[in-house]
Amino acid sequence: MKYIFKKDINLGLIFIVLFVITLVGGFIKWIWLIFSGIFLISYIFLDKKRLRCPSCGGYENLDRLMYAQNHIFHCRHCGKKIEIR
User: Fold this and answer.
1) Separation between Cα atoms, residue 57 and residue 42, nearest integer Å
2) Which long-range contacts (CB under 8 A, 24 or more apart) does 10-15 make?
3) DSSP assigned state of 69
4) H or E element that contains 15
5) pLDDT digits over 72-83, tens only?
6) Could you write out the three-class secondary structure of 17-66?
7) How far apart are CA 68 and CA 45, in angstroms?
8) How many other CB atoms sit within 10 Å of the CB of residue 80?
9) Rg of the chain, C-alpha, whole Å
10) DSSP state at residue 80
11) Residue 35, phi then psi, degrees to nearest 5
């Protein structure tokens, strides 16, 4: 794999938003905390598998990857261009 898919970046953003919403809801009803944990674990697995630099496997945060969707972006670790498709 030489690139990162836009759908994976958008899915990561959806997981984070759902995590925050269910975490806030967890203060009202404790059952929402279970869903919050599920969304957090889902994001962590997505991040480990698909939201890494394709060349070196270095970590790039979600904010930088969202910026890279519309701009030229280089990895902070290896310096190679990250392609978003």
Assistant:
1) 19
2) 11/46, 12/43, 12/46, 12/47, 12/51, 12/62, 12/65, 13/62, 13/66, 15/39, 15/40, 15/42, 15/43, 15/46
3) T
4) helix 6-26
5) 989 988 989 988
6) HHHHHHHHHHCCCCCHHHHHHHHHHHHHHHHHHHCECCCCCCECCHHHHH
7) 21
8) 14
9) 15
10) P
11) -65, -35
Please state whether beta strands 3-4 and 83-84 pair in parallel, antiparallel, or not at all (unpaired).
parallel
Residues in the chain: 85
Tokens of 26: 């967890």
Segment 12-53, tens digit of pLDDT: 999 999 999 999 999 999 999 999 999 999 999 999 999 998
Type of residue found at 52: R
